[in-house]
């Protein structure tokens, strides 16, 4: 049966949402820990590192100044270049197939990642997903010129619009509060996935929360004959921004509480 989407375009976070790159990230962080004389980062501590820009995290976790953090990011990225950006990376089960299915249904998609764009592109090429995206957007190499999630989301929307894609009803999919906040800063809704690296409370502010790909698919693809689903439960403070225009034949997908659980992935 043909499917359509209630969204005009979909933005994807990468680390913790599409790709599990934790093995390579941990290995490089442990090398960096020893290099800078800091306690070695453990797997349990990855939740502090995966998601936010490394420029910020080196300052928070290693107590570095901005200049020291800039040097540490450069060192860490050089390790990644030598190691191979895709070494040890894995797709979360079913996510790649969903991205390809959305592309086949004619839904424009973009990445909106805090990971440097060159690495995002390498990962998408490695997993054969490049052609499923209208544009691939990530941070600038220094993670300072373009590094904040809100700015990356804005850049993804700008590039989509420049290609003539309708950006009146976008949605961002991510696994950290940075994703939720970055979407909100641009006046767009977000869907929070619980299979990434996050604390349970980080989903606050998202328009929907999902535990698995089947739940996510149900929010992104509808049988062509169906109408856009109405909200199941809509907190008064969380409404779809009024800046989004909607054709008269559709209603805006409002806040949906998909999962009843409150534990992290």
UniProtKB/TrEMBL annotation:
Signal peptide: none
One annotated GO molecular function: hydrolase activity
Protein's UniProt keywords contain Hydrolase: yes
Source superkingdom: Bacteria
Keywords: Hydrolase
InterPro entries in alphabetical order: HAD-like_hydrolase_sf, HAD-like_sf, HAD_2, HAD_sf, PGP-like_dom2
Gene3D superfamilies recorded: HAD superfamily/HAD-like, Putative phosphatase, domain 2
Nucleotide-binding is among the record's keywords: no
Protein name: HAD hydrolase-like protein
Any single Gene Ontology cellular-component annotation: cytosol
């Amino acid at each position: 049966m043909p499917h359509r989407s209630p969204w005009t375009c979909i933005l994807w976070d990468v680390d913790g949402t599409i790709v599990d790159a934790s093995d390579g990230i941990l290995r490089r962080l442990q090398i960096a820990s020893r290099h800078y004389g800091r306690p070695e980062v453990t797997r349990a501590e990855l939740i502090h590192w995966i998601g936010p820009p490394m420029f910020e995290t080196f300052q928070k976790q290693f107590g570095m100044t901005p200049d020291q953090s800039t040097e540490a990011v450069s060192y860490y990225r050089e390790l990644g270049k030598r190691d191979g950006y895709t070494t040890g990376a894995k797709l979360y089960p079913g996510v790649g197939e969903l991205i390809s299915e959305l592309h086949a249904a004619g839904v424009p998609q973009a990445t909106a990642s805090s990971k440097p764009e060159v690495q995002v592109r390498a990962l998408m090429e490695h997993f054969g997903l490049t052609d499923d995206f209208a544009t691939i957007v990530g941070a600038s190499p220094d993670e300072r010129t373009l590094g904040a999630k809100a700015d990356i989301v804005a850049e993804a929307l700008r590039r989509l619009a420049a290609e003539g894609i309708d950006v009146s009803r976008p949605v961002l999919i991510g696994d950290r509060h940075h994703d939720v906040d970055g979407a909100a800063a641009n006046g767009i809704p977000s869907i929070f996935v619980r299979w990434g690296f996050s604390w349970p409370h980080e989903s606050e502010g998202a328009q929907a929360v999902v535990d698995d790909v089947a739940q996510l698919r149900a929010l992104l693809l509808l049988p062509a004959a169906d109408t856009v689903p109405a909200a199941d439960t809509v907190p008064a403070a969380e409404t779809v921004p009024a800046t989004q225009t909607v054709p008269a034949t559709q209603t805006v997908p409002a806040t949906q509480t998909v999962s009843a659980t409150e534990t992290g992935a």
